[in-house]
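Milestone 3.1: sequence recovery, worked example.
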C-alpha cells in the first residue's frame, strides 16, 4: 500500500489515488489452494500459490530509498503476531529511512494468520486497544515507561528511537464495528475500512469516529477517512456486470460477513456466525465445499460486494463517498484476476479514475 496523508476540508484535501493493487491475488484476498487453478483465474498458473506474500518490514525498508516522496504504508498488520513495541520500532525505523511519515495500518487480525500457528484469536479487539496505547507511548516517550494491561505488561520498557521532525509514523485503523470505530477516533490518524458500505453507512461510521475523537480531546478532522475499495471495471456496463459472475468475484463475495448478506435478506452459505474474511481459514475447506458456496452467492450480493462499472460509473460511486467525507482511496482491482486483457484495462482505467477523483 502506498498512501498520501492530508487534513483540512474534504474537497481540498482529497487524496490522489496512489495505488492500484493488481497482485496475484490482491491483498486481503485469501483464495484457497483447493480451487486455485486456471479455471478460477488466469493468474493461477502451475506452481503458483495464493499464499505467496512477502514480509512487509524488509520490503518497505528496501523500498524506502527507491520511492522518493511516496509515502510508505502497510495495509494492514496486527498486534497479535507482532508485539506492539516491535511494530512501533519497525514504524519508527521506516520514519528514519523514508522521506515522509510511514503509515502503520493496523487491525485486530485474521484467523488464517493466527489459529494455524497456535496464536490465540480470542478478544482481538481488546488486545488491539492495548496495543494502540502502547504504540502511542513508544512514539511519544523518552526513557523507561510502564504499561499494566490485561494482555500486555511493560515494566521499564525503552523505546528512545524517536522519529525525525515531521516524520512521526501515522496509525491507520482497519475498523468496521462500533468498538473499532471508537478506537480509531481515540488513537488513529486514519481510518482504513475494506468491507463494502453505502454512503449513508460510511457517513454514520465516520461520525462515530469523529465523536470518539472529540470525546478524547482530539481534532476529529485530523483523522483521514480512507477506504480500501475493491472494484471491477470494464469498457461497458454490460461487460462489467458480467464480471460479477466470474469465479474470482464470486469467491470474494463469499468472504463478506453474514451481516452484509443479512442486510440483503440472504443467509450466508458458510453460516450465520461467519464474520467474513477474518474468520476464513482457506486450507480448512475442501474444493467442492467452496465451489458450492460460491455458486450460492445471489446476484444482489455480487452487485454490492465491489464497486463496478465503467470508469465513469466507478468515479460516480467514489464521488458519492467523497460527498460524505472520504479523503483517501486505495483501489484494488478484482477484474484484473479475470483475464490479462482486463488486467491491462484496469491499469489504464485507474489513471483516468485518479485524475477525476483528484478534481472532486
Amino acid at each position: 500500500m502506498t498512501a498520501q496523508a492530508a487534513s483540512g476540508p474534504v474537497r481540498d484535501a482529497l487524496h490522489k489515488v496512489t495505488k492500484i493493487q493488481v497482485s496475484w491475488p490482491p491483498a486481503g484476498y485469501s483464495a484457497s489452494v483447493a480451487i486455485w487453478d486456471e479455471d478460477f483465474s488466469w493468474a493461477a498458473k502451475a506452481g503458483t500459490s495464493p499464499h505467496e506474500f512477502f514480509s512487509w518490514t524488509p520490503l518497505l525498508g528496501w523500498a524506502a530509498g527507491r520511492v522518493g516522496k511516496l509515502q510508505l504504508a502497510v495495509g494492514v498488520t496486527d498486534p497479535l503476531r507482532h508485539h506492539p513495541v516491535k511494530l512501533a520500532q519497525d514504524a519508527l525505523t521506516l520514519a528514519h529511512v523514508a522521506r515522509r511519515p510511514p503509515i502503520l495500518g493496523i487491525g485486530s487480525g485474521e484467523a488464517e494468520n493466527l489459529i494455524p500457528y497456535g496464536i490465540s484469536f480470542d478478544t482481538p479487539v481488546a488486545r488491539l486497544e492495548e496495543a494502540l496505547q502502547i504504540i502511542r507511548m513508544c512514539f511519544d516517550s523518552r526513557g523507561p515507561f510502564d504499561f499494566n494491561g490485561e494482555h500486555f505488561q511493560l515494566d521499564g520498557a525503552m523505546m528512545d528511537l524517536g522519529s525525525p521532525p515531521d516524520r512521526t509514523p501515522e496509525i491507520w485503523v482497519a475498523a468496521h464495528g462500533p468498538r473499532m470505530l471508537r478506537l480509531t477516533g481515540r488513537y488513529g490518524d486514519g481510518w482504513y475500512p475494506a468491507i463494502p458500505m453505502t454512503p449513508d453507512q460510511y457517513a454514520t461510521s465516520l461520525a462515530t469516529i469523529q465523536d470518539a475523537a472529540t470525546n478524547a480531546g482530539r481534532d476529529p478532522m485530523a483523522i483521514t477517512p480512507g477506504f480500501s475499495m475493491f472494484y471491477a471495471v470494464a469498457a461497458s456496463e454490460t461487460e462489467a456486470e458480467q464480471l460479477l459472475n466470474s469465479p474470482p468475484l464470486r469467491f470474494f463475495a463469499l468472504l463478506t460477513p453474514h451481516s452484509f448478506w443479512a442486510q440483503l435478506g440472504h443467509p450466508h452459505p458458510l453460516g450465520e456466525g461467519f464474520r467474513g474474511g477474518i474468520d476464513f481459514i482457506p486450507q480448512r475447506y475442501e474444493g467442492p465445499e467452496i465451489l458450492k458456496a460460491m455458486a450460492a452467492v445471489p446476484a444482489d450480493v455480487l452487485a454490492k460486494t465491489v464497486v463496478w462499472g465503467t470508469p465513469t460509473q466507478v468515479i460516480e460511486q467514489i464521488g458519492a463517498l467523497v460527498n460524505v467525507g472520504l479523503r483517501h482511496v486505495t483501489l484494488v482491482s478484482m477484474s484484473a484476476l479475470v483475464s490479462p486483457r482486463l488486467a491491462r484495462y484496469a491499469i489504464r482505467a485507474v489513471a483516468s479514475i485518479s485524475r477525476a477523483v483528484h478534481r472532486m
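The chain has a mean pLDDT of 89. The two ends are 22 Å apart (CA to CA).
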